[in-house]
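Lay summary. Proteins are chains of building blocks that fold into shapes, and those shapes determine what they do. In this project we predict the shape from the chain. Here is one chain we studied, written as its sequence of building blocks.
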Amino acid sequence: MTEPTAPPPSPSPSPSPSPSNGGRGRARWTRWIPAIEQFRSYERAWFGHDLIAGSVLVALLAPAGMAYAQASGLPPITGLYATIVPLLVYALMGPSRVLVMGPDSSLAPLVAAVVIPLAGSDASQAVALAGLLSIFVGVIGILAGLARFGFLAELLSAPVRYGYLNGIALTIVVSQLPKVFGFSVGAETMISTLRDFVEGLIDRRANWWAVGLAAAALLIIVVLRRVAPQVPGVLVAVIAAIAVTVVFGLADHDVSLVGDLPSGFPLPSIPNVTWESVGRLTGAALGISFVAFADTSVLARVYALKRGAQVDSNQELVALGAVNLVAGFFQGFPVSGSQSRTPVAEAAGARTQLTGVVAAVLLLSLLVLAPGAFRNLPEPVLAAVVISAALRIFATRQVVRLAAIRRSEFMLSVVAFLAVAMLGAIVGVAVAIALSLLNFMRKAWKPHTTELVRVDGLRGYHDSDRHPEGRRVPGLLLYRFDAPLFFANSRFFLEDVIDRVDRSPAPVHVVVITAEPITDIDTTAADAIDELIRDLAVRGVTLRFAELKGHVRERMDVYGLVEQIGPQWFSRTTGEAVHAYVRDAQINWVDWQDHPDL
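And here is the predicted shape, written in a compact code that computers can read:
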């Protein structure tokens, strides 16, 4: 859900050739395995670019993966497992040619919020819980993609997303502060973590060597990101921290180090957790799935637009699900598209997903041949890496803009922020989704409505609120309802029409619903229209429609409303409806004769 900053454009690969003839048959099953088409259309000239990009990428993947694992409440090694497996699976099933999958900062607090309370200090249990959580996220993603639920990524409105992102960013920063200062706390929520952190400072538990290392690493990353974005600041910070640790013997100053990583790669296994934990994981998996897909969907759209490609949200959702499903069996945890590593891959010249395969193979070789490579990496530096990623999540500029242009949406953003900050990441996700849906319902429940009037010198009919000088056809109310008619707003529709008829300064004999904005009518709305017809009839008023869309009229025909109103009272245009009314009522209204284009 982070708002990715588009990196400098790089040469795009030639589009894959369209399958012809029998290719159409192949596309039916190869659609879910895009690697086949990428292989068929692969050009030799791309290999060198993919090889270099994969080599460059691995320098960022290792420290970032370990940092996000630690931020998720897991051993650093699991971050490498959760990097290698997703790279390989997405290379096979991912529709995007350059998207990089792996652990991400926006998911870390969500995973930690589930794992830490259930596992406590038991690292093996934490790994098992995170693995099963990833499997659940994977199953949800695959089923949702096959059911064509890709549109769900759009459910978070921009204001709510900004507030959610700010809450997540602040949660990440606060969760890493104790590690930066060289001590640990047992708190689970952001507020309790902040309280325990302050108490730790008061009790003089801070290790100033750790603080110095973390501050220096953060400064290097942030400065290089601004002045030399082509230089991998994370890698520079990590190498410098390891060198300083060895030269000054910081292990003797109680600075926590990563230590030797387990050699090799785990065999696939089913995570062993209690049934009680399974229930807790299921609900959390839904929220994490939503956030992971929203993250990946935004990123995929950005790079598809850059390359002139199209995004199939359902296919992307299936690929994301497969990535998480497989990762869960290899001691991984939930992952998504990476907004920090994808730009690195593209800027380094990546042409296809072979870049990810190269990076995964190099990482795997590192685990097998050099498990001690990160022995002297200080854990406070990993915390600095996480904080540097969190700083990029903050959407303060967008929120300030909202405050200036639309206060209601600014308040929505603030509420979403407070929900994440005060209630925790998992509950905050649920609140953020609910806020977006409620905001949509609020707008659809009471949409803009108006009476249309004739304005001299202007073609057509116009909003009476904007044109108080407009003229009304005697005895006719032209009413526009700017939303679909459904259960939530049907009562408002009925009452608003009746209220306008009753408040009209002159008697109304006919109401014409100018229905061009109405895109659907459900059963509840059909019942409301039936009630409206009867209420108007009591007042001596008849109901007609104009500009009704074909499929909506067909729906009204099924409900029996067309026959009830009369097929002749469904006009193609508002002008045609006015013409028919003036003709039949013999009203002294000559405007339509002066303007036959009505």
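What the prediction tells us: Strands lie at 101-102, 336-337, 449-454, 461-463, 476-481, 510-514, 542-546, 570-571.
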